[in-house]
Amino acid sequence: MLSSKINYSAHKSVFFVPAKIIWFSSLFMGILASIPKILQLHITAVELAVDASIAFLFSLSTWYFNIYGLPKFSNIPVTNRFFNLRLLYSIFFGIVLMLILVGIHQVLFPGYHFQSMILMYQFRGILINLTIYMFLYFLYQTYRNHQIELELERVKADHLTAQYESLKQQVNPHFLFNSLNTLKSMVEIEDKHSAEFILNLSDFYRFTLEKRKQDVIPLAEELSILHSYMFLLSARFEEGIIFEDQIPESYSTSLIPPFTLQLLVENCIKHNVVSLEQPLTIFLSVNKDMLCIQNNLQLKMNPDPSLKMGLENINQRYQHLTGKNIEIEENPGSFTVKLPLI
């Protein structure tokens, strides 16, 4: 047996104790247990080898017995307590095994006093058993704690993804309703840009369906759909919204979570006045490897209803993907969100 493994089909993890550790530790315990014999003056090499072999075989058997007492190989429930039923089984197994090994020793060397031998070897066996059990216990508890941490991270990531999907679903239905109303008005007045409006609306929703399951996309794709989105907004608000894209083309291969810029633009519109008299200017740029989206601050007296989780959700997405936070700067004249480039 080259290694000892315990598979967990639920989350496909593996508890693994390398065979080298098992065999070398057993050999070390066999040699260590024979030191008192080495100090004796009248002992043959054969007797010394047999004595070391007993401790070695006992240690090796105890290793595998305790490993096979762990989940998958055993129905005994897992517990965090050190003293439990699993330990009692291990000690009982060790006592029986040592009786067998000492019996074999007595057959080979009948000159030894059996009762003295059995007491000495049983005491030695219990110490070896407790040492191996304690080491395996702490090793397995560390493994379990690590698996719990991984599971918590997975649940957190799934929850974050669900929140992000929910946030996107809040934006798109309202946007579609407003876009269809705008299209209706354009058709009624026979606006020559109606066909272009329909194409951009189609591109936007095609992108929504194709990219919604991806964690990140190239910045060039995000900007392309953002331009379609801004065209639709411009048809609705006319000159009440101004969009400036100053992002260098060299950053086109950088990555960004899909819909991030759209959600930030939607956030600008939710909280600020957008009118011909007070145009809302949205400016995109890159500064020190941070993607900046800035708008002039002209807050509404009664802003649109919001769950106030848009920026926080985007920040959590960046923490999950890059370990970095987004930066928010607000002053009397402007509001800026800075996104780490991936």
UniProtKB/TrEMBL annotation:
Any matching Pfam family: His_kinase
InterPro entries for the chain: Bact_2-comp_sensor_kinase, Sig_transdc_His_kin_internal
GO molecular function: phosphorelay sensor kinase activity
Protein name from the UniProt record: Sensor histidine kinase YesM
Record keywords: Kinase, Membrane, Transferase, Transmembrane, Transmembrane helix
Keyword Lyase: no
Cellular component GO terms held in the UniProt record: membrane
Annotated TM spans: 21-39, 45-66, 87-109, 121-140
Domain Signal transduction histidine kinase internal region positions: 162-239
